[in-house]
Each structure stands twice: as structure tokens, then as C-alpha cells.
Amino acid sequence: MRIHREGRAILLAASVFLLSIHSVVLFRYGATAHRYYASFTAVSVLLYAWLIYFFRNPYRVISQREAYVLAPADGTVVAIQEVYEDEYLRDNRVQISVFMSPFNVHVNRNPISGIVKFFKYHPGRYLVAWHPKSSTKNERTTIVVEHAQGVQVLFRQIAGFIARRIKSYVREGDRVQQGSECGFIKFGSRVDVFLPLDAKLRVSLGQKVKGGSSVLAEL
């Protein structure tokens, strides 16, 4: 299992911090500390194991197909609705929202291949990720990729109550490949995808999806 590059510095810092705490406790409290040392060690090991699990980056076979829109993240489909997208597309779209819990893989992937026509970072609030207004009120990025056939797909990385840092690896003018990494959101959140109204949906509400693997829709 690979560790994602976004987690390497955090894992190093966590290991130094936990080892320092252990050393200070033993040095300061001596024999008294041994009564609680086993429990403290167990909690530390579990915490560190969870961090490793969170920042995992499993190998994934990407099945690229021009007509498909792939899931941009691992998680659960929590919304499928027609909305008016007013930031860039300015027309009605089908919005599919994928919620990532702290136990999902948090690598974000490009849902289609094409040219990045628009990228913008928005500072904002940290409402819980399933809140209806989180898509427009929370810290987020907006990315628009234009398909080879001219169809534009917009997707947003949205921070949540726990997620406090969004990383994006694309910029306007980049040529991106379907399923390749486009970013990472630390500690749980969601990604919204805005599709043309005539897209054939291939997922349902409550369905579990895998980024770069599951098909959300067919253009």
C-alpha cells in the first residue's frame, strides 16, 4: 500500500510528536507512568495507524472511456438533483455529490479527459459537508474541464467541518487525463460534479463509488 505524498509530512510530524510525548512522560513520572503506559501506547498506535490508513493511496486500474464521467472521489452519493450552476456554466445541470467520510480514500481524480478551462479557489466557511449550502458557502475549488467533443463538466472540491485544507494539482490550460489525480482533501468532505441534463446517469442515491473507477454518467 502506498502513502500519498500529502500525508508524508503529517506522518513524520505525528511520529516525532508521539515519541516526544512518550519520552517526556517516562522521564518526568518514572515508575508512576508505567501504570498508564500500556494504555497510552495503545492509543498512540491506533491514532498513528488511522493516519496511515487515511493517507493510503491504493493502486487503481483506471478504465478510460471518452463517453464516461468517472467518480472524482471515493465515497457515497448523497445528492442527485437538477440545479442552476451560476458561477461559470450559468445553466441548469445535474449535480451529483459524493461525500467522503474520514475512512474513505481521499485522493481526488479528474472525471473526464480534456482541457482545464476554468479554475478558482474560494475561501469560505466550514459547514458540515452534507449541508445544502456547503457547495456555495464553504471553502472550495471550482474546476471546469472541456471534453474533446466540446462538453464541459464542472466539479468542486468542498471542505467540510473537519476538512480544513484542500489541495488542487490543476490550473487553467492544463490538459488532464481521465482518472488522474487532480487533488486531495484532508480529513473528510465532498466533491460535486455538474453534468449536462441529457447525461445518462449510472448511479443512484446512497450508492458507494470509487474515484477513477465507478461511472457516474454517460455523456
Structure description:
The protein is α+β, with helices and mostly antiparallel strands and 219 residues long. The chain folds into two domains: 5-54; 68-218, Glucose Permease (Domain IIA) (Distorted Sandwich). It has three helices and 14 strands. The chain has helices at 5-29, 34-54, 134-137; strands at residues 68-70, 75-85, 91-100, 107-109, 114-122, 140-146, 152-159, 165-168, 175-176, 181-186, 189-195, 200-201, 208-209, 215-218. Strands 9-5-6-7-11-3-2-13 form an eight-stranded antiparallel β-sheet. Strands 1-14-12 form a three-stranded antiparallel β-sheet, with no helix packed on it. A hairpin with a 5-residue loop joins strand 2 (75-85) and strand 3. Helix 1 (5-29) runs antiparallel to helix 2. The protein is elongated. The model has no long low-confidence stretch (mean pLDDT 86).
Keywords:
single chain; about 220 residues; alpha+beta; Glucose Permease (Domain IIA); eight-stranded antiparallel β-sheet; three-stranded antiparallel β-sheet; about 35% strand; elongated
